[in-house]
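It is worth pausing here to work through a concrete case rather than discussing structure prediction in the abstract. The textbook approach is simple: state the sequence, then state the predicted structure, then interpret. We follow exactly that order.
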Amino acid sequence: MSFLKLGGFIPAVAALSLSAALAQSDPLSAEDTAAAAEDYARYCALCHGAEREGYANDHAPSLRSSSLLAPGNDLFMFRSIAYGRPGTPMAAYREESGGPLSNREINRLVKWLYEQVDTDPRYDENGDNARLPYDRVAGDASLGAQVYARECASCHGPDGEGGTGTQLANQVFLIFASDHLIKRTIENGRNDTPMPAFKDRLGTEEIDAVTAFLRSKATGADFEQPADTTPPAPDEYVINPDSFDPEFNLEDGIYVSAADLNAALEAEARMVILDTRATSWWRMGHIEGAVPIPYYSDFDDIVDDLPRDIWIVGYCECPRAAAESTIRQLRRRGFDKTAVLWEGIQGWAGLGYPIILGEVETVSADE
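Step two, the predicted structure:
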């Protein structure tokens, strides 16, 4: 695997424009605070935890971490929520990418996250802006490659593909993380994660070199996001509507294996398949015939569109958290013929079962 040849970082004018919007010193109103808290509970808590503690599902990081909520990270966090993190279960939540949130709502959510900590790290003790600059860090990328291989590859992978550590060959990360954000993370580590601080282990020259090496793997300023795709209408939810019901042997009364689901699909059994991820992931690719019903849906509003006498199988990315949450919501509403795909779509694809790939469109990083 090689690093994604995508990225660069946000042009300074665009970055500072959005950063200025995030940096408005006026605190959120009581109404906006309540709305942001509701958005967090609906869209984020499943993976990041009800109290922002992290690691509830999908190895999602703590969102009360001082190293994550560091100066300069508010812009990075906005972009990560908006466009997702390819190579991780983090979906794109921006409306234009197929998600449920407007730019204003994402802005409000990011500001809310910073307001939940005792001291806003974006400002110093005098209340002055303490954000990191957006200029390049000068370093020897060839030296950085050597240091990366020695110090970083065991966790982040020889080519940045990830492992126990975050995937660094990640188009959104390489586009939206400034050089100084990368450098600060190397220096100080990420608290509440296995990522250690290297400031006492590496010299400034070596840290600058690793920063330059990572930046050298990003060229250009565009990336791909899923194109708008029309999901099935309610009268199209049922696959093979005139066929027979599958016979599933559910593990623990809820889980169906990829092999059993694939066998039912190949036999052209009738069923409904729910893609419970954010719709942006469904646009990228899905099991053929799957209907995007995200885990954050208002289930009281959609139950009339779903059949109660036909098997409904849900899947997600991680592999089961969103799907299990969705299926249990349906079971509480009387949908008994329901199941969760044990392996999730990543496991499904990894086992060689087919998926339908969606179309993508190129987006400029300053949009």
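Step three, interpretation. The radius of gyration is 22 Å. The chain is about 35% helix and 10% strand.
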